Amino acid sequence: MSTPQSVTPQIAQQLLKMGAVLVDIRLVDEYAREHVPHSVSCPMASLNVDRLREVLSGANSVIFLCLSGIRSSQHCAQLAEAAGTAQTYLLSGGLQAWKRAGLPVVKGKRPSIDIMRQVQIVAGGTVLAGVVLGQAMHPAFYWLAGLVGAGLLFAGISGFCGLARVLMRMPWNRRR
């Protein structure tokens, strides 16, 4: 296991030409929206070490990327361990830096808002409605804002967001 090194998009592109494997650790819907050509989707949220090692079999080096570089940096030790003997790199700045460098990306067929932004929109709208209705109609509506706050607190502590699970089942978020 090697300590992951950060690389720029230009260096990552050179490593890819030399046979490195590019692994995208973002969620499946993020990957479907847009990704680097020939990258492999292995979401960190449900990392399958056996599948990752299968993808990396025979590769001397692997480059991990996420949207901005934060997730891959946070999980660098776990990713390096999962990569086994392959030299491990992290794409500095993630997909955003890759696009800023003018390098190619594959765009999905239909644009959508990622699930966490949808959660923020619904939660924010519900809190706002609870406060406005609590002020204008009846103080009991303040409980609505409190429940959303409690749900967000629970999601932050536990890593489980029930609202995200519900939103994933909505028709506009289903894969076709």
UniProtKB/TrEMBL annotation:
Pfam families linked to this entry: Rhodanese (PF00581), YgaP-like_TM (PF11127)
Keyword Metal-binding: no
The organism's place on the tree of life at top rank: Bacteria
Transmembrane regions: 119-137, 143-167
Domain Rhodanese: 16-107
PANTHER family noted in UniProt: RHODANESE-LIKE DOMAIN-CONTAINING PROTEIN 15, CHLOROPLASTIC
The keyword Transmembrane is annotated on this UniProt entry: yes
Keyword list, A-Z: Membrane, Transmembrane, Transmembrane helix
The protein's name: Rhodanese domain-containing protein
